[in-house]
## 1
Amino acid sequence: MAATATALFHISIWPLQSDHLGIAVEICVALSLAVYGWVAARKAPSGQLDRKTAECFTLVVFLFPLLWEAFERWCLNRGEAFEFRVAACLRNLMIACLLWPAFSRHRQFAAACSLFLILFSYVIRPNPASSMLLVLYGCLGLAWMIFFSWERIQTKMAATSQRNIPRAASVGGLIIAGLLALALVFLIPVRTLQLNLWQIFPSSGGTGKSDDFAWRGVRDGNLLVAGVDQADTFGPVDSQVFMESDQPTLYDMMNDLYGEDSRAQKNRERAIAMNQKDVQTSTPKNSVQETATREFSTLRRPSDKSARSETRPDTKSNALLYVPGDQPVHLSQQYYDKWDGQAWSFTETAEEPPPFATRTEADKTWFRWDSGLPENFANLTAELKIKILRWSGNRLPLAPLTTGISIPKLTQVDFLRWQDDGSLALNRPSIPTHTVFSLRHELCRRSDLHRIPLQQTTPSQLAGDSPRRRELLTTWTADIPAGWAQIEAIVARLHAHCQYDPSAIIPAIQTDAVDYVLFENPRATDYLYASCAAVLLRDLGYQVRLVTGFYADPKKFDSASEQISVEPADVHVWLEVAATHGAWLPVDPTPGYSVQYAPPSWSEWAFAQVANLSRSMWENRLPVLLTTLLMIILWRIRHALILGITWLWWCAWPSSNRRRLLQTWRWVECQLCWAGMPRSQTQTVRQYVRSLRETFSTNDIAVLQKLLAQYEYAVYSGATDVPGPQDDSLRLCQDSQLVIVQHCCPWVGKVWNWFAFGFLLLKVQRS
Amino acid sequence: MTLLKYHEPPALREACRFQPMIDGLRDELNSALLGKPAVVELVLACLISRGHLLIEDLPGLGKTTLAKALAQTVGGCFARIQCTPDLLPSDITGFNIFNQQTREFEFQEGPVFADVLLADEINRATPRSQSALFEAMAERQVTIDRQSRRLPPTFFVIATQNPLDRHGTYPLPDAQLDRFSIRLSIGYPDRATELEMLQMDQAPRAAQHKQLFTPKELAELQEHVSQVSLAPALREYLVDLTRATRAHRRVSCGLSPRGMLIWQQMAKAVAHLEGRDFVLPDDIILTAQPVLGIRLSGDFDHSEPIVKEVLESVPVPTTPQK
């Protein structure tokens, strides 16, 4: 129980404890506790552990975290939250009490400490793993209470019942209890439990991690409380909406636009004086963005890292936006559908954008539209929150197959506007910092993609037609049916054909970047991969568009804030394939990037696992076959093998007679148990050997009885060793093992007899 | 495979100087009680473990014969009490009598001051008289007129009782039963033994048995037996078994700590009789029924199934304690 509580405590605080000094101190405390436990264990048989020493040690380890905290605050100018330190004190006290077995009350006190500790730890970080540990703790606690109250329970049972519970029923009950416990892990309403437990465990505030002097964290102010209780504010402390900033917030904007409160806000937006540096860094970015909205060229100059914009003064983070969760998300910004061999651009179509439908749900106004995905393929509608931090421009980042958006305070649809390329924009110059908006997007299962009908066009829309590209396509898609399988095949072929190189550049003299990558220099970065895939798919007749935007990489998931920080470096290019009914399905041909799909059903998952396993086994059939054969052979010769290994072990590392006898008897029992002759727990070894008389010959039983006599002396006499020549003892052990092996595996006995016969002949010949 | 000669673990049988006497005693008792070597072994174990013996069986099965043979072979002072309802405590313990010549009270020792006391048909004595043996059996002393008198260190009570003929008897209380080490039933002999008995009866032999021990030697042997080692794992096993008797749902009165100590001594004695200077779990199991059978009480007539359940509820330690 104590171990479970300690494990959960450390799992919970680990993401918050990142400094090496703190970890080193924790290790020192653990070592000192281990040394103390060792000393206590050594003293335990005599029952004389110096009480004063134990009390002093317990007091020191109990107070140490607080003392260390004082030291950190005064000398290192940092620290931890007070409640963590108190929990660490309790943890140390709990372990010290367990290591001092003088009184049984210590155990009970340690159990109480462990209960507090595990509940506290669960409050810090409730997740399925924590729930599992909590349930495990509950089971252990129940077992502990039953163990210590067993006599009382037995007395009660004796008074009420005289029937023994059948073993099968007991095993069945245990299995059902285990399954229930497992189910409980998933049924625990984590959020409700956490909120209720928070009332029990008050918190002192922040952790000081985000800001050295920021101790105003959780439960230390109305804004912060609101920041925790409202899901919209999932960002780190330094990017919360309540932080002081000279930037106008979304709330200011809304108030401004709808005229609810205004003058001061209006003046503030217009009259804010930005310093010269910010003006300089922001102006060129705007001009670049305007260019990019018209065209996306594959001809680039090498990037100049030194020219990157500096971070703004009001926050430390370099993130453009935050996305909660650890799933990969493609956030689109612009779409391109026209390719001239060197650059992508978009055509302004007369097609009407999808109309918005306004709907209010739980005080949130949703603007919804149809993604075009048929209902039977939309397996899951996921809700995604995005927090804008330093996003430039007014285009809203959208996930693939987005069907709705909700922005706080925004209730009028005319605030949103479809762009010419199909992206969605806010009807104002920029999106305010710290805006948190929600998206609803549809996810379909990977297996369903093969059933979705794709929109086919004539392959002649491309600017130039390349014969060798057609030839390559014929090779790559031979015998592959049209549809999603061809798309997957193209992506797989591209992965195999091209090497990912972030610095890959297309020379300016090249007229067809795709042909250059495919046939001359197969090195590509994301936009080249996307361009190649898009062009090839168009050659096959699919309607494809290129998408630029950002990729929320699950590798950058921050477990402390439980979100992914999307930074300028996460800019990414992928493509979307049109399905019938107007849905655009994302395809990311760049290696290392994955598209988010709906989780497969259980049957699909199981089938996929079996298929993967089968495929893997088939691909490695020779090693698998050899391994299987080896395993079968090893199993068949296991007795001989173990015998040989044991004898070699004894030859290489001679041990005392006693130890060898104990090992031999354990081996004998184990082998006989495997052979279907286990010893009952209430059977003495002498009774056991007596019960083997009918199975073994007289001579064999005599050998086993000799072993038994030595074993009984070794175990029960209290002597440190069994007197007698080492050779005799070794021979007895070997003979006993041979008796068992000959019985369990007769052919080993025959081989051994031949071996012994040969050895005898050799000896006679030499003599 | 030919059976090779291996080194034997050191045994006590050759080393113990009392072994010839024990073997002689075993032979004598076996000759007195034919065909019951297992019973004889337990009687010997009871004797050398410094305990007291209660033999309970039907009339004519050799209870008194065995007791008398044991008393004669052990040597020392032997006394016999034929328990009847009019037996007084002072008839057992002794009493003070006024000497007219010396004008002082003189103590007349009762039969309890013998080395071996045979209390025949003990359940025919009244509870008052039975109680006279409490102090003697537990503490090896008697207190008469506020003066405690020590009994011989080898004081050994052999009591017999008849389980069937209950008329006019007083069942022994639990306190009295707990003072006996074991209760034995001899049982009917087998056919061959009875044939042998008939043959021996045609040529009557002397019912005298030769004395094999002096009281001092017996005391030394008892001290020697108490030195037999009991491994820590087996001590725990014994404690677990003791607690199991108390936790058993059909037992109202489990094994007392005194009973546990007696069990330990009995196991040591059995180990010594087998020539070992250490106890095996088998010794504890072997003595379980005689020791527990006299002590466990509850809603059962026969204690054998209860003892079996108790033994099956505790795993036997088969590995050395670290």
## 2
Amino acid sequence: MMDQTKAGSGFPADEFEALVRTHQHALLQYAGRLINDPVRAQDVVQETFIRYLNTPPEAADAEAKAAWLFRVAHNLSVDLVKTESRRGELLKQVVPPDPVPPVSNVLAEREAWERLEGLLQHVSVDQRAVILLFYQQGKSYREIAEITGMSMSNVGMTLHRGLKKLRPILEEDGQV
Amino acid sequence: MHDHCESIRETMTGFVVGELDTKLHAEVEAHCATCSACRSELEALRTVSRLLERELTAKSMPLELNAARRGQLSEAARAKAVSQRPSLESVQGTAGPRDASKRRTGLRWAIPLAAAAMLLLVFSFGLPTDRDSFDQMASVPKVTSPAPQEQALPPQDDPAIDPASLSTYGLIVPVSRDLEAERRSLIRIAKAREIFSNYEYPPAYGLPFDQGQFERAMPYFGLDGPAPYFEPTDMPMLAM
């Protein structure tokens, strides 16, 4: 557990630790799925909280804080995916890619992870982000727009295109 | 397919997930009541949506940051409380509280940088003999022992650099504020080391540079941002 020592001079360290406890699960879930790497998701989420410490959002309400954390984690994840895909293309020529570490020791969870990854690899990173924010995180179009920087109509269109792309794949699997 | 069907289908996902305004919602509903093709399209989208919802909301074990990272964040929060600017560089590397000697990590990047700086000087101007002559040497181009073109440090990413050499040299690319910039810096330094390792020169310790000189040397390597982070385990690699 985190050290519960009280911060001395004004900065609410206890409040920060409570914030970490409250949001770490959702952020890890989202980043882990978006970058398809639960271990590097730990890097992303840690960096998100570090940035919160350095430049906390001005708004004080819980909803705004959550949106801010998701926005930072989203941007870090998307940057990582884009950087990795550029570098990955180069690296693939000389070394095989690292296997994705298992998300869980529970067989059913690992199978679920792999099944869903098999599906989500067919959509773009933006479509993946919107799908995850909508279905996994239960965010509304307005909240997704705030997190991703898209307009609300663009969020709707991105989700629509993502679903359309997934439909034939699910049909092939006999699930639709 | 009718034009109207086309425009209705564009809004169908919004209809399925309940994000359409009342007017559009009613329009889709009315259209699907009379158009069987659009009705079946709507059903298919509904099924896809339900499947995704089921898969993505499935219960999983609670996820949390590992203990080491929680400890680092806790330390960063305490550091913030005493008005120290926390950063990933200042907290990464050890899990628990760190002692005073480990806090003095400002020089951890300096040795790799020094190796690169030394390399540039060696190739460009010969071996430096005077501790204080860095600026002078840098501003006076010498014609003796010119560096072969292929050994010059690349101003940008050198496509000839084998990215695998990063791992050969034990470099760890951190997740940080500017991944791409750090990656470029690491590649430059890796390249410098690659050349350095082929060059007969005493080990990296005892370099005739001080901290200020390192900082003045940084622009020569395109390192105008924050210094790259190196794991402490990376350091012995320099004792060639």
